[in-house]
Amino acid sequence: MKRAFLGEFEEVVLLTVAILDEGAYGVNITQEIEQKTGRAVGFSTVHTTLQRLEEKGFLSSQMGGATAERGGRRKRFFTVTSAGRRALQEVKQVRTELWNALPPQTLQLMGG
Amino acid sequence: MLRPPPRFAAWLLKTFSHPDTSEEVQGDLLELYAYWVETVGQRSADWRYSLSALKLLRPLAQRKTNEQYTTPFFLSPVMLRNYLKIAFRNLSRNKSYATINVSGLALGMTCAILIFTLVSYHLSFDNFHANADRIYRFVTEQHRETVHYSRSVPGPLGKSFRNDYTFGEKVARVATYDDVLITLESGKDVQKFKEDEGVAFTETDFFDIFNYPLLKGDKATVLTQPNTAILTERIARKYFGNTNPINKTFRVDNKVSFRVTGILKDLPINTDRRTEIYVSYVTLKQFDDWLASDDAWGGITSAMQCYVKLRPGVSPARVESLLPAYVKKYRAKSKNVHVYKLQPLADLHFDARYGGAMTKTNLLVLGLIGLFLMITACVNFVNLATAQALNRAKEVGVRKVLGSIRGQLFWQFISETGLITITAVVLAIVLSLLTLPYMNEWFQSQIRINLLTDWRLTLFILAATFFVIFFSGSYPGLIIARFQPVLALKGKLSQQNIGGFNIRRSLIVTQFAISQMLIIGVIVIANQMRYAKQSDLGFNKDAVVMLPIATGSNPQTMHTLTDRFSKVSGVKNVSLCRAAPSSSSNWTTSPTYDNRAEPENFNVNVRAADDHYVPMFELDLVAGRNIFPADSVKEFLVNEMFAKKLNLKSPDELLGKMVSLNGGRLKGPIVGIIRDFHDLSFHQAINAVCIGSDMNNYDYYAVKIDLANTQQTLAGLNKTWNEMHPDQVYDYEFLDEQIAEFYETESLMLKLIQAFAAMAIFIGCLGLYGLVSFMASQKTKEIGIRKVLGSTTGQIIWIFAKEFSRLILIAFIVAAPVAWYVMNAWLKNFQFQISIGADVFAIAIAGTFLIAFVTVGYQATKAALMNPIKSLRSE
Predict the structure, then answer these.
(1) Which residues form the Transcription regulator PadR N-terminal domain (chain A) (predicted)?
(2) Does domain A8-109 have CATH number 1.10.10.10?
(3) Contacts of B56 in chain A (CB under 8 A)
């Protein structure tokens, strides 16, 4: 299998979906990212990233029930697949390894 | 309550976002919109919403396709090359298939190109004049029992209109005399020319209304002086060769001399005014005193036409509303029958009532026939291609297994069709260039095909090519692209899988319906023509030579020449007359009967003629006696219709009653009644007719000859003519030819429809042939088994015949009522018409059957005679 590759924004989105657990869908993902990272993200960017992640097999989605507040339109809920979880783990592991490999003096300079 | 998001953005999102995710995206954005309104305010929320919507439009937010196995773009050069290669291989393997397709399409396209050039040629008439929408012709409607339309007006109308009103920016009167004799004299050398198109006495405004540019001479002065003339380059070259034509002189009808003061550029082919000699209007006095005078309101002659270019903003209706005043003022004594109208320039060419050359209906019919032929050709193609599709099954299967997608297969097939079509189109262009001269001869036109300058034609050919490619390529293409690869590779596809058998059948039905309609049309027109030309006209038209009387003849010369003609060997009788009993040249007037105060409310057709007329044409005298020899009107013969129009019980009541014509100028008692004869073509009802002697109104010597030695007699007449009139051109016509000219349009239509029917049948047969050969090869095994089990040859042929007879019958059921309706409408043009009997339909269907069986027969017989061992051995 190809090695999982996650872009930075993809990682953020994937993590957010994981944080939101069961109830992750377009709107609250966008809001969550905005609040947690403080950067203004466009909905369309989030949407396409979600699509891409689903294509790569890191996310799965299913339609929710009909809702009253959004003109009766259903929500698409996203959940992280096992491949997604593995990819997140992998990314985190790579990061940790890299941090650990950092020489102590450099670490000190960075204020760690 | 929350305001809804920007409507346009919402609509964009709804319509163009990816259908898979459309629902949740719309919902999400709606929710976010509410959130944005709260957090960042209305304006920013609107802005963000619209921006997101825009970014989510389909091409910007599409899922990326899996790129693991790439499919080349279906129009990439590599694929195109492959398509063409396969197409070539396929076509060269199936040569007969390719030939049938190419020739069918080429024939259809040839017809389409020719018809297109013809139609656009007619539509282009007089389209080169500035402000054409303001140019009109004054025309006259004469309201009697029936309305009679004339393109002429009384001579002084134009002048009065110019002087009385300011509506006309330019007004020009043109008096055209056809068939004039032009004489050139240089020293002793005399040259004579007969000009069919004649000379036109023209007011100078004419050249401000119409765009006929002057090459030499000053437009303001060329035609102002008496006895001045301008010629077209062509005529100038014909008369004066390469010498400077300016100030040269010529005589018209040995009556009036003219000096050339200007040269006109040659007339374009697409104009109805074909006169090439224009002379100054002021000279008309010397030529026709009556017409030139200011009080010639009494009648109209076809020579006089009047054109006007209205000022901008003046409506023709307004001008027309002024014209009745003229009738009251100048024609106070006549019955009020004249109604003057304005006819727009754009209608001149198309309004047959006023002598337009080509009606729009005829153009429409032609266009439809062209379209029909194209469709037939396409149908052919679709038929053959669908039938062939099965042979391509393996190829398609392999291609699909190797990763072809539907679109690619479809385009592959289209490119194959394109190859065939383009070959056919090239062939069609060559063919139409070759056949154009014949068409020009038929239509007496000078159409040229030039693809480089005529962008309309080029565009048409391109459009037609694309139409044919897609129309005929897409259905077989779709079928092929739909094949299931597994079935195709196992060879388990059959005609049933391909389907479309019924579609193919209905296509054949369409083709044969079209052919049969055309065949029925041909038969009906031909029958009507035969009826018109061969049925009894009420007089004998055979063996009569019509010789126009020389211009400037006086009664003395006429008598002398009549006497000398009758002495020529082979001449049986000679009559001086205005026209043959049946003629397109008519002198009509309202008669005054029995000294009544008012003229009658009908027209008589006056046939001025001498006492030889009745015996020579074998007109049937039913009462009274023939007229006595006389030089001016003393007595009349009338026909039975005259009595009917007067509502008399018996024609005999007419005898001895007075009749006066032309407002009392011609007067005499009725001395004899003749049986009705066709004085006009079969298009029109028989008129009341008066025959009386009047030397002033004779136009022809009608000479009855012995057909045994026609050549000698004609030569003898020629010799006599030249002795009497050395300065005139000898010119004659046989009467039956003159009468045949009545039906010129119909004969032309007949020829055309014959040609097109032949084409349609031929194309149809090509298709049938192709289909039968395919069917035969499909049924090889079936036929083999049948033969082994004891079928006779006849029974096997019947398998094929059954199929096609059924289709032809269905086609006939469709075609017959349509053709019957259309042809009945056409026959309404004739007052005297045949009725469409069952025989017409019988002939049509028998003919179609015959042709179809000949086509099918060869292949069917070949299949039936095949040795079953050969067809069955392989298994």
Answers:
(1) 19-90
(2) yes
(3) 44, 47
